[in-house]
């Protein structure tokens, strides 16, 4: 099978031509496997798709058109009303996001105590200090004032989680720049819960080049030079 080890980008499938050579063609959205309701996704065209297969197959068929360039995965789940993000909310967003990233790393560290493999040895040594210092501020819904006070008092604990998340996303390719598609896994899963994340990332891109550099990312989270 010439397609066996031949990979195509999202929205395309392998097809063997007459000479037996593999080539990539657009996925037929109608041929995508059926999905459950919780697998539905919302596109940036505010249309609900049965799953990512249908969304990216549709995007592929629109390749070369303005509509195709503008169509991306917006967020996980069926399309719904996303409230407007106010100036006050977007200013407070980094406080919650920093705390959330810190708590994710602490949870990974705790799981590693039983089953290793969530973090590398180098990551574990960095998170260990955060874990040991964090018992005074347990995970949960904290007030903005408490989060701000903790960030100012324990600034060093928040630097690594912010860097860690950037490098988790910076994969295709690893170039210290985040593209729309690299941000998508984080953004798409958070939009229904954190309606300010889209505006937050837009404002992170200070030079408006549609890429978020490490320096821009850190500045957004209040990390010093």
The CATH homologous superfamily of the largest domain is termed EF-hand
- The best one-word shape is globular
Instruction: Indicate the CATH class of the largest domain.
Output: Mainly Alpha
SS summary, helix count: 9
Low-confidence stretches: none
Q: End-to-end distance, in Å?
A: 53 Å
Please give the share of residues in helix.
40-55%
Assign the structural class, choosing from mainly alpha, mainly beta, alpha/beta, alpha+beta, or little secondary structure.
mainly alpha
Widest β-sheet, arrangement of strands: 4-3-5
Keywords:
225 residues, Wheat Germ Agglutinin (Isolectin 2), domain 1, secreted, 3-stranded antiparallel sheet, two-stranded antiparallel sheet, signal, 2 domains, single chain, disulfide bond, Recoverin, domain 1, mainly alpha, SPARC/Testican_Ca-bd-dom, calcium ion binding, globular
Report on the architecture of this protein.
- The chain is mainly alpha-helical and 225 residues long.
- It has two domains: 65 residues, Wheat Germ Agglutinin (Isolectin 2), domain 1, CATH 3.30.60.30; 135 residues, Orthogonal Bundle (Recoverin, domain 1).
- Helix content is 47%, strand content 10%.
- It has nine helices and seven strands; from the N terminus they run ββββααβααααβααβα.
- It has a three-stranded antiparallel sheet with strand order 4-3-5. Strands 1-2 form a two-stranded antiparallel ribbon. The chain has a two-stranded antiparallel ribbon with strand order 6-7.
- The radius of gyration is 20 Å and the shape is globular.
- It holds the Pfam family Kazal_1.
- It comes from Fregata magnificens.
- Its main location: secreted.
- Keywords: Calcium, Disulfide bond, Extracellular matrix, Glycoprotein, Metal-binding, Secreted, Signal.
